[in-house]
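Supplementary Note 3. Input sequence used for the single-chain structure prediction.
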Amino acid sequence: MSLSTNDMFYSRLPLNQITLSELLMEEHLFYKIPDTWHVLITDVKKSTIAVADGLHETVNLVATGSIVAVLNIAGKTNLSVPFFFGGDGATFIIPASILDAVMKALTQHQQNTQQNFKITLRVGQVPVKDIYNSGHILSISKLKASQLFSIPIVLGDGLSYAEKIIKGEDYLPDSFSVTEEDLDLSGMQCRWDKIKPPENYDEVVSLLVIARPGINQPGVFKKVIDKLDEIYGEAERRKPITTSKLKLKGTLKKIGTEMRAKLGGYNALYLFRNWFTTMLGSLYFRTKQGKTYLQQLVELSDTLVIDGKINTVISGNRQQRELLQAALDELERNGELSYGLYVSKESIMSCYVRNMNEDHIHFVDGSDGGYTKAAGVLKKKIFTN
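The predicted structure, written as discrete structure tokens, is reproduced below.
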């Protein structure tokens, strides 16, 4: 496939090497997404119930699977596309050139998820043109979050509007005839045990923040990010993942869940090969190469998402969290924002490993469905306001 200038829009965005707080105040560094692109959303229906039934790790894995499916398609055409992990689903903004292939892959993933886990995965798309025509805003920038990791930063209410459309009762999803060949989840892994917070920390906080309608969104987000920096320290200091707390969990049950999510069914060779490989993992991670991978893993952990709202997983102590809640409560009383927060004792992680040398991404959530439960708190506030 020959790529057009339009297809390369996100790939060619300048990479901003300033702080997030600074970037939020630089309107000229945000660009309007082409109106020929599409917003795609995947979302586990009734995820709150699934989490309550103890399926939070499976829900996370299903969400990770949708990201892997899209990135594998984009990667085959040398495209870079923005994506956003949300615990029980994901959001993407993609060019029209890969829309059909992506929708077929996600439809197959949807069918596998229903068949193997009795979990219903919602899949839908809204043209960016429709978002603009309805009066909504969608602008994007790219931030260098670390030496190895860059993230998209989206402002405006465009993604929220698309989500409401796709979750609406009258939304009619596209129909596709699919086969197993349409879905490629190679690279998806779920091998880590629940991860304790770093030394001297005792909790993991999953936090969602939205700016109230009519309020200066980037200004509100800057206040929240500045408060996080003040209370918890800069992004690297509040990450819930450290190499010393990582522990492989290579049980047949865990790898079996990964297998069914990835392959859509049972495969004895996959199950025992990956179980054996995981058992050897502890030896590999003692080598120089293995230690380098673990250091990269921490740096490449996706713990901050800004997709028109702030989604972040951080670690700290009770005193820090109470200071944060007091600050957020004040901003909430002032009518500037609404937020949802959930406290866990651990975090969980699912992974996309294309290779062991800097080409891997790790998706983090609070244990027991941190993002999902924080979203539940936020929804109640929105509903009552």
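The mean pLDDT is 92. The radius of gyration is 20 Å.
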